[in-house]
Write a structure and sequence with these properties.
The complex is a heterodimer of chains A (about 120) and B (about 120). Chain A has strands at about 5, 10-15, 20, 25, 30-40, 45-50, 55-60, 65-70, 75-80, 85-95, 105, 110-115. Chain A has about 120 residues and is mostly beta strands. Chain B has about 120 residues and is mostly beta strands. In chain B, a hairpin with a 3-residue loop joins strand 4 and strand 5. In chain B, strands 2, 4, 5, 6, 9, 10 and 11 form a seven-stranded mixed sheet that branches. In chain B, strands 1-3-8-7 form a four-stranded antiparallel sheet, with no helix packed on it. Classes of the chains: A mainly beta (about 120), B mainly beta (about 120). The interface between A and B is medium-sized, with 22 and 23 residues.
Chain lengths: ~120, ~120
C-alpha cells in the first residue's frame, strides 16, 4: 500500500532563512508527488508536482522540491522564507503501479511558522 | 473565475438530522472527490466520482452518501450524522481521472460540528 510521511508536525524558521519541509513516500511503482499549501480558513492550493524528468521541480511562490528516488523523499524547499509563507503544507503521492485505480494519499501535514 | 464552491461553509447540527453539503465546480472537470481533514490524520478520501453517474468509495465512506447527476455538482449527504463526523470537509476536482499527474483543485472547506 502506498503511504507518505511528514515527520515534522511543525517547522519554525526566521524570515530570510532557507526552509525545508520534509516528505518521504512509499509506493510499489513510480510515484507522482505533489505539494499543497493550506492557508488559514482556506482550501488546499497546489504548489508543485513531480511527474518525471528533472529531479528539481520549481513551483509557485518561489518554492521548489527535490525528488530523491534512492531516499524516497520529496522535500519542499525555499531559499528565503517569508512571514506570509506561514501555513500548513501537505505532501501527497500517487502510485503509478495502481493505474487508473491509483489514489492520492496525503501526509498528515506540516505547519510552517515563519517569524520576523 | 475557475473555482470549486462548497456550501455551507460552517454547519452545526444535532445527531441524526440529515444534512447535505453541496459542491460545485465550473471547470468542466470529470473527476470530483470528497475528503475530511482531522488533526493528526491529514486528508482522508470519503468518496470520489470519475464522471457523471460514476461514484466509488474512498478510504472512509461509512456514514456518507454521494451522487453525481450532473458533471458540475457532487453533493455529500449525511443521512444520520454522528459526533464522530465532526470534521473539516473538502471537495476537490480535477481533469480526467486517468491522467494521474493532474493536480486537484480544492473548495474552501465546510466545517461541520455534530452535537
Amino acid at each position: 500500500a502506498q503511504s507518505v510521511a511528514q515527520p515534522e508536525d511543525q517547522v519554525n524558521v526566521a524570515e530570510g532563512n532557507p526552509l525545508t519541509v520534509k516528505c518521504t513516500y512509499s509506493v510499489s511503482g513510480n510515484p507522482y508527488l505533489f505539494w499543497y499549501v493550506q492557508y488559514p480558513n482556506r482550501g488546499l492550493q497546489f504548489l508543485l508536482k513531480y511527474i518525471t524528468g528533472d529531479n528539481l521541480v520549481k513551483g509557485s511562490y518561489g518554492f521548489e522540491a527535490e525528488f530523491n528516488k534512492s531516499q524516497t523523499s520529496f522535500h519542499l524547499k525555499k531559499p528565503s522564507a517569508l512571514v506570509s509563507d506561514s501555513a500548513l503544507y501537505f505532501c501527497a503521492v500517487r502510485d503509478t503501479a495502481a493505474g487508473t485505480a491509483s489514489k492520492l494519499t496525503f501526509g498528515t501535514g506540516t505547519r510552517l511558522q515563519v517569524t520576523l | 473565475e475557475a473555482q470549486v464552491t462548497q456550501n455551507p461553509r460552517y454547519l452545526i447540527t444535532v445527531t441524526g438530522k440529515k444534512l447535505t453539503v453541496t459542491c460545485s465546480q465550473n471547470m468542466n472537470h470529470e473527476y470530483m472527490s470528497w475528503y475530511r481533514q482531522d488533526p493528526g490524520l491529514g486528508l482522508r478520501q470519503i468518496y470520489y466520482s470519475m464522471n457523471v453517474e460514476v461514484t466509488d468509495k474512498g478510504d472512509v465512506p461509512e456514514g456518507y452518501k454521494v451522487s453525481r447527476k450532473e458533471k458540475r455538482n457532487f453533493p455529500l449527504i449525511l443521512e444520520s450524522p454522528s459526533p464522530n463526523q465532526t470534521s473539516l470537509y473538502f471537495c476537490a476536482s480535477s481533469y480526467r481521472r486517468d491522467k494521474l499527474n493532474n493536480e486537484q483543485f480544492f473548495g474552501p472547506g465546510t466545517r461541520l460540528t455534530v452535537l
